[in-house]
Input
Amino acid sequence: MGKLFLIKDATKPIKWKLSKETKHIGKYQCYKATYTKMVEKPKTMSFTMNGGKMEKEESEGGMEEITVTAWYTTDIPVSNGPEEYQGLPGLILEVHDRRL
Output
């Protein structure tokens, strides 16, 4: 388009715990990193029959702690990954959290 663009964005630093555990993803040797974070717990609803009468029970949402696990490779020395995940000494090839 012939124009220069400046894009500003802030990422929240993640305090990863690096592990010596490894696995291969494709041809890359990957290392495990984890961290815990607080996320909003979804509200749930359940129904039961009690003596021919239907009862509804709702749970409160609230917050819960989850552990995020990332597998990264130092063979690609780019400190990036999917979504908001970044900050490791290599490219993140796999992430496990509640959503991904």
Q: What stands out?
A: The chain has a mean pLDDT of 90. The longest strand covers residues 28-40.
